[in-house]
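stage 2 :: seqdesign
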């Protein structure tokens, strides 16, 4: 009885990894076992950093809002507290964009909150 190896599926599986490793340096893009390790580590970093991206953007928005608010004599925490008291529902992304690109609109919001 002949040996069954299912070459089609195994070649497709290896080709998928090698295509994913295109552009990697040296053996990482040429040798299957090295490429497989590099791709799996890349997927691990991608999974982790999809979550970290949300954290880092929130930190950036808070820093921008804080810088914009301090020009008007408030701190970030007091500003956010006053926003919630006045029932102004603008998220940090929008507030940071206003503070950076439309300072006059942001100033109007700060004056409305004070």
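stage 2 :: out
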């Amino acid at each position: 009885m002949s040996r069954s190896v299912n070459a089609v599926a195994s070649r497709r599986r290896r080709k998928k990894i090698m295509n994913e490793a295109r552009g990697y340096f040296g053996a990482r893009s040429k040798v299957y076992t090295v490429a497989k390790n590099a791709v799996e580590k890349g997927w691990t970093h991608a999974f982790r950093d999809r979550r970290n991206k949300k954290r880092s953007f929130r930190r950036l928005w808070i820093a921008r809002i804080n810088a914009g608010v301090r020009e008007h004599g408030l701190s970030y925490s007091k500003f956010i507290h006053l926003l919630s008291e006045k029932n102004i529902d603008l998220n940090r992304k929008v507030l940071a964009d206003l503070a950076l690109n439309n300072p006059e609109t942001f100033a109007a919001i700060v004056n409305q909150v004070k």
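stage 3 :: structure notes
- The domain at 7-113 is CATH 1.10.1900.20 (c-terminal domain of poly(a) binding protein).
- The helical segments are 7-20, 32-70, 76-85, 92-101, 103-113.
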